[in-house]
């Protein structure tokens, strides 16, 4: 089983690349955003709990997020591996994920981070904003604020995985096919 954390700033192409990796390697893609939306829409116990926090404008506690992800992993016990997308976001989440996987005799094999210069990302997101319907993709100051959040939080995780020799930075500029090939090269070596 190979488990990776797919990381990158907004607009880096994580969703696109996760789709290709999922199909190429028969992995299960776990997107935190999708898991949250599913649990809230289906009014699961965890979804209702998360919604309570979100409705108050508070961050959903790590424990709730982690329990949702654990449930996703358990639902897919026969998987060849997992792509974690949008999780972990903090060192405590990374530690909790490591502990959970270790209990199952598994581990994160690597964090693959798509590295793209900020100006290219701004252009990509503004372009995406024309069709995505996402208001946070149409305002450059909001986009730059998202990068600030990402850079502040990710630097911690980059170091966390680098300290375990599990950080792999990938050039996220080029054609989709070129980027997929770069990721596959790293994945195959894990």
From TrEMBL:
Catalytic activity reported: AMP + ATP = 2 ADP
Region named NMP: 31-60
Domain notes for this protein: Consists of three domains, a large central CORE domain and two small peripheral domains, NMPbind and LID, which undergo movements during catalysis. The LID domain closes over the site of phosphoryl transfer upon ATP binding. Assembling and dissambling the active center during each catalytic cycle provides an effective means to prevent ATP hydrolysis.
Enzyme class, UniProt record, top EC level: transferase
Protein name: Adenylate kinase
Cellular component GO terms held in the UniProt record: cytoplasm
Function: Catalyzes the reversible transfer of the terminal phosphate group between ATP and AMP. Plays an important role in cellular energy homeostasis and in adenine nucleotide metabolism.
Top-rank taxon: Bacteria
Binding of AMP, residues: 32, 37, 58-60, 86-89, 93, 134, 146
Family: Belongs to the adenylate kinase family.
Subcellular location: Cytoplasm
Protein source organism: Polaribacter vadi
The entry's keywords: ATP-binding, Cytoplasm, Kinase, Nucleotide biosynthesis, Nucleotide-binding, Transferase
Quaternary organization: Monomer.
